[in-house]
């Protein structure tokens, strides 16, 4: 029996938005794969607007068997950072959801509502209800000496209607008002990945995600193999021009590819394509018309020896043109 990607690892660390779900619905193949997994699964999400128990309930409502212990949010990671830097019982201003405030209280912090209460730190996580008043209290606290921790710096949040404003965009407003940049707990920092692996006692984890500058960069920074799906934010062209720190081990159309042989998902000539260098450009010819096979074929040259590709990909022939058109804009 041929080996699959899953056979190489002892745990799966899944991103959620754009990887498992999008806009309140499961993405293709997620339910069957997650419910049939023979190795431990952990969900690691930069979205700090929900507590781990709420994330698990959403997964269960969508048909995926999940427990609170299988979820690690960036809010939890931010709390861990604060615990390393603050005295027990310190006061904190939490710019985020009620679940974030609950986590802070459970960790022993005193949550305050105003900069006038002299918080020792500001904890900043995503909350759709955040407005000018809350951002201003955070800015005042930081101007008066509070430490600044952010759950994540994602500038956008994938939703059914498109890319909405993410926590990083809100953080940018506070940074502009204070000149202080936060310490980020979430992806692409390696801490969440390392923490998730420790919770599972995993020695060979595989990080699975859709966003190169968070999911993949964080897995790479943690020294883990990474599996990129083309169902979310980062599409074909983003991979072609990806820097070394954001290059996944595997490139897949969707989660169903976890059951394929590893070699089929790594950069290399596939699908009867022919790729050649033409100065700083790459030419691709012939082939099956499969866009993912074309992508992995192009990556075999674009990613060679740590090379940073900055040329063009040129299609020679109808089949190659068809494949590149399917990459989108």
UniProtKB/TrEMBL annotation:
InterPro entries given in the database record: HAD-like_sf, HAD-SF_hydro_IIA, HAD_sf
Single GO cellular component term: cytoplasm
TM ranges: none
One Pfam family cited in the UniProt record for this chain: Hydrolase_6
Molecular function as annotated in GO: phosphatase activity
Descriptive protein name: Putative sugar phosphatase of HAD superfamily
Species this protein is from: Corynebacterium mustelae
Record lineage: Bacteria, Bacillati, Actinomycetota, Actinomycetes, Mycobacteriales
């Amino acid at each position: 029996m041929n080996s699959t990607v899953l056979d190489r690892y002892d745990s799966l660390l899944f991103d959620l938005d754009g990887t498992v779900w999008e806009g309140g619905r499961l993405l293709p193949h997620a339910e069957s794969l997650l419910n049939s997994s023979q190795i431990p699964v952990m969900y690691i999400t930069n979205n700090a607007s929900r507590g781990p128990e709420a994330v698990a309930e959403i997964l269960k409502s969508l048909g995926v068997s999940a427990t609170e212990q299988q979820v690690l949010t960036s809010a939890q990671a931010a709390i861990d950072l604060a615990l390393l830097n603050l005295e027990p019982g310190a006061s904190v201003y939490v710019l985020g959801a009620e679940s974030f405030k609950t986590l802070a209280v459970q960790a022993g912090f005193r949550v305050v509502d105003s900069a006038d209460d002299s918080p020792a730190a500001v904890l900043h996580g995503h909350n759709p209800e955040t407005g000018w008043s809350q951002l201003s209290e955070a800015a005042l606290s930081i101007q008066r000496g509070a430490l600044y921790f952010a759950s994540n710096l994602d500038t956008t949040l994938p939703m059914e209607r498109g890319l909405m404003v993410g926590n990083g965009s809100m953080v940018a407003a506070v940074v502009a008002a204070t000149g202080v940049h936060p310490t980020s707990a979430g992806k692409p920092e390696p801490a969440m990945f390392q923490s998730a692996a420790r919770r599972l006692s995993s020695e060979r984890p595989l990080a699975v995600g859709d966003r190169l500058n968070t999911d993949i960069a964080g897995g790479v920074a943690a020294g883990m193999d990474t599996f990129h799906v083309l169902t979310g934010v980062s599409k074909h062209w983003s991979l072609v021009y990806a820097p070394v720190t954001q290059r996944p081990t595997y490139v897949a159309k969707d989660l169903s590819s976890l059951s394929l042989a590893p070699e089929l998902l790594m950069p290399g000539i596939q699908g009867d394509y022919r790729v050649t260098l033409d100065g700083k450009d790459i030419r691709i010819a012939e082939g099956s018309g499969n866009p993912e096979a074309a992508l992995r074929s192009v990556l075999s040259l674009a990613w060679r020896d740590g090379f940073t590709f900055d040329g063009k990909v040129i299609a020679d022939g109808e089949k190659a043109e068809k494949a590149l058109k399917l990459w989108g804009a």
